[in-house]
Design a protein that fits this description.
This protein is of the alpha/beta class. It folds into two domains: about 15-240, Aspartate Aminotransferase, domain 2; about 245-355, Aspartate Aminotransferase, domain 1 (Alpha-Beta Complex). The chain has twelve helices and 13 strands. It has helices at about 15-25, 30-45, 55-65, 85-90, 110-115, 135-145, 195-205, 230-240, 245-260, 290-300, 325-330, 345-355, and strands at about 50-55, 75-80, 95-100, 120-125, 150-155, 160, 165, 175, 190-195, 270, 285, 305, 335. The strands form three sheets. Strands 1-9-8-5-4-2-3 form a seven-stranded mixed beta sheet, sandwiched between helices. Strands 10-11-13-12 form a four-stranded antiparallel beta sheet. Strand 6 and strand 7 (about 165) form a beta hairpin. Helix 3 packs across helix 7. The protein is globular, with a radius of gyration of 21 Å.
């Protein structure tokens, strides 16, 4: 019997053909195909500008550079997120200020954000974890009241919606990951989007060591090499065409698990508002006996994954505080086998195995 990975995506002959075509035409480094991908990506999200880069992590770093984050600034980050959200700020010498999540959803709590603001606060980074919308209206209101920037970390929320708008398109900047475990993939890759022409222009300078004219270089602005590649962009354009297929697949996987949860009382689904347009990138649950369940699944050839550790457990971020709401997500959260390439037959096999677990 074959093993079941915690994540499976869908890649087909169309992606291979697109990459082969790009290489045959010597479209290798960042060029025309990347521009086409950026334009199509922006149009799909309903924003005027999108800037491709090497990863979601680098998209965060580029965005913070474009927003002027410097040493000594304070950047507010939720305690429950992937470490890249915090590391981007630390790379620039900023102080990461961790804020607890809402009690029932692993997204940042606006009331705790308000309590964490100081005169040194410069940026709020809400994270739309697992496709769940952070409370953007309240956060943008706070930012406007205090003259702060908002960078939405939507690495896990591409094409997820709440209230009609795609998550990641309300703040000053939004970032997405195109890594292998995301809704669409270019293997590695990321994207920064904005509605601001000024920020778009800054991002494009940041992406190439601050240089605007590559034939007549002048090194008078700060930046680095964050450039994308055309053969990845060729793959990304095909993946964009798969969005309806991928959406139908992840929603079908989510429905299959959801129908079984009422009989699996030892699992508590982490809520996601699919009826409001949130896209269930992964199927995530809480389990008080998490490690034993992961081991049980592994014994049947099924891979599951723990939730991200809470960031207050990272000593290099410095002393923080108490985080009672997010503690349960870090201690009990886990991801069941998911993804647009995950077959319903395999999901049913996972469910059968879950029924065999004795909590």
């Amino acid at each position: 019997m074959h093993s079941i990975a915690w994540w499976r995506t869908h890649l087909g002959p169309e992606e291979r053909a697109a990459v082969d075509r790009a290489l045959a035409q010597e479209q290798v480094t960042q060029g025309r195909v990347t521009e086409q991908f950026e334009q199509e990506f922006a149009a799909a999200l309903g924003v005027p500008y999108a800037v491709a880069t090497t990863s979601g992590s680098m998209a965060l770093l580029m965005g913070m550079i474009a927003l002027g984050i410097e040493a000594g600034d304070e950047v507010i980050v939720p305690n429950q997120t992937f470490i890249a959200t915090a590391h981007a700020a630390r790379m620039l010498g900023a102080r990461v200020v961790l804020v607890d999540t809402l009690p029932d959803r692993p997204v940042i709590d606006p009331e705790r954000v308000a309590a964490a603001l100081t005169p040194r606060t410069k940026l709020i980074v809400p994270v739309h974890l697992g496709g769940r919308a952070a409370p953007m209206e309240a956060l943008i209101g706070l930012a406007r009241q205090h003259g702060l920037a908002v960078l939405e970390d939507a690495a896990q929320a591409l094409f997820s919606r709440r209230g009609g708008a795609v998550l990641g398109t309300d703040g000053d900047l939004g970032i997405y990951s195109l890594g292998i475990t995301k809704f669409i993939t270019t293997g590695q890759g990321g994207m920064v989007v904005t509605r601001s022409r000024e920020l778009n222009d800054r991002l494009r300078l940041v992406r190439n060591h601050g240089v605007e004219d590559v034939l007549n270089e002048r090194f008078d602005r700060f930046g680095f090499n964050f450039k994308f590649t055309d053969f990845q962009a060729a793959m990304g354009r095909v993946q964009l065409g798969r969005v309806p297929q991928h959406q139908a697949s992840v929603e079908a996987v989510y429905r299959e698990y959801s129908a079984a949860f009422s009989e699996l009382r030892f699992l508590r689904p982490i809520p996601i508002a699919t009826e409001a347009g949130e896209l269930p990138l992964w199927v995530e649950v809480l389990c008080a006996d998490r490690q034993r369940l992961i081991d049980h699944l592994a014994g049947h050839g099924i891979q599951a994954r723990r939730y991200h550790p809470n960031l207050d457990r990272s000593p290099h971020l410095g002393p923080q505080g108490e985080f009672s709401a997010s503690r349960v997500f870090g201690r009990e959260g886990m991801m069941l086998p998911s993804g647009p390439g995950q077959s319903i037959d395999d999901v049913r096999r996972v469910i059968a195995c879950l029924h065999q677990f004795s909590p």
